[in-house]
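User:
Care to share a sequence and structure tokens?

Assistant:
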Amino acid sequence: MTVKSRKCRFMAAMSVREQTDPMPDLATENNKKRPRQQSETANGARPRRGGRLTEARRQEIVSLVAPLFLEHGYEAVTIDDIVDRIGGSKRTLYDRFGGKAGLFEMVIKDYCATVHRDLFTGIEKHTSVEKQLVEIGTHFLNLILHPRILEQHRLMVSMGRNFPSVAQMFFQAGPQTAYNLVAKWIRQQQAAGKIHEGDADVQAELFLDMLTAKHQLALLTSSFECTSPKDVAKTVKAAARLFLYGAAGTDRSRT
């Protein structure tokens, strides 16, 4: 068979293949890969389209999605699970929140913000430093021992190895921000001459860590001993006095 005849047979075969197996339409293929938009939410209402996400709606989404992550873990929750819970479409979920990862970050930051927002609630600035410190410690310990916050802590510890960036985000938004807020209060007391000069950042870390170690670990491991309100109050008072006066005791007249 000549080269020319082989070429003719090859071209004829290609012509038949094009008729039976046409080139795929890229636009059609892309449309197939796009998430199908749902016309209605789980409760029958049409999903929101466009517009500004109100704070009320954001809080509603957090309250709906948070239990999914806390109960099942980040990896086990799917986009379909989230859409079924909050309504709307997958496209809206990605466009507005950055998908599952964006929603998870929003949940974590919201929980952390709750702790920080309430940390100094009801603190009387004109009372003694010791009383203020006891109130700060009591607020902080009661907040982080809340069942919802404990579940969040368990989840972040379990995710730390496989998702280090998420764990880092949690540490910065949660514990580190709490340290910073207490350090700011310490600097204010130092400037007023009520607390001796020192590294306020380290002092804040030491004070908060004195509070959490025993009680938080007990509840994280489901051991409910020594976590009564009376025991919590005892720990906070002892930590505040040790922080201010030291184990050997110092002059308390400055406070």
Notes: The chain is about 70% helix and 0% strand. The chain has two domains: 34-97, 111-245.
